[in-house]
């Protein structure tokens, strides 16, 4: 099984070009600084640090129950996760030491762990039904991740940017949210939380609809190709059978 996998082409480490607001500037920043890391630091080390940032988010969220200024720590965790998540794959490619299949699995598994930790951290600031809404946002956010991975399995194209928004923009939104909570408290968030859930679910439905429509078109195109090729192959096989079954020509001399 392992030998078979070695020979198979893998595209999980090659994301489609991102069309998010900050993608171009982020790419320039990564390319111009990836050579600055010390030799002992590997890409997989950066990948695994997401566990630390996830734990930090939960701790700072819990501490922020009594003092919202602890959300500054959560913002630092968001920044650090952006930093390590941006450079882990780039570092492996730059040094040609990457482990793309392991990186694809662990990096994106930990992405879900990290996103769940973000929401768990916010749940400590809320009570009752509002906390339940935050818990509902965890599977909704998870569905975005699952959609990306399943679409990759069907198309071998890895896309993580939807409707002009990518992971970097989402992290920035959370940092801005932290600043607003520190400045104005949590009451205004409670008033719009249910709408956040509704909008997030609606966007998820749009993403899933567009993704399945794209995969449907791929299937239909491949089906038409097979329907066109099969009669030609059948005619060629029949011609070969006729040639093999035809009696040998007798010499009349």
CATH topology, anyone? Four Helix Bundle (Hemerythrin (Met), subunit A)
Order of SSEs: HHHHHHHHH
Report the principal-axis shape: globular
Q: Find the count of extended strands (DSSP E, 2+ residues).
A: 0
Can you put this structure into words, describing what you see?
With 253 residues, the chain is an all-alpha fold. The chain has a single domain (10-205), classed as CDP-alcohol phosphotransferase transmembrane (TM) domain (Four Helix Bundle (Hemerythrin (Met), subunit A)). It contains 9 helices and no strands. It has helices spanning 2-6, 23-33, 43-48, 50-63, 71-95, 100-123, 128-155, 167-184, 187-245. The longest helix has 59 residues, at 187-245. The radius of gyration is 26 Å and the shape is globular.
Keywords:
253 residues; mainly alpha; Four Helix Bundle (Hemerythrin (Met), subunit A); 9 helices; globular; disordered N terminus
Quick rundown:
With 253 residues, the protein is an all-alpha fold.
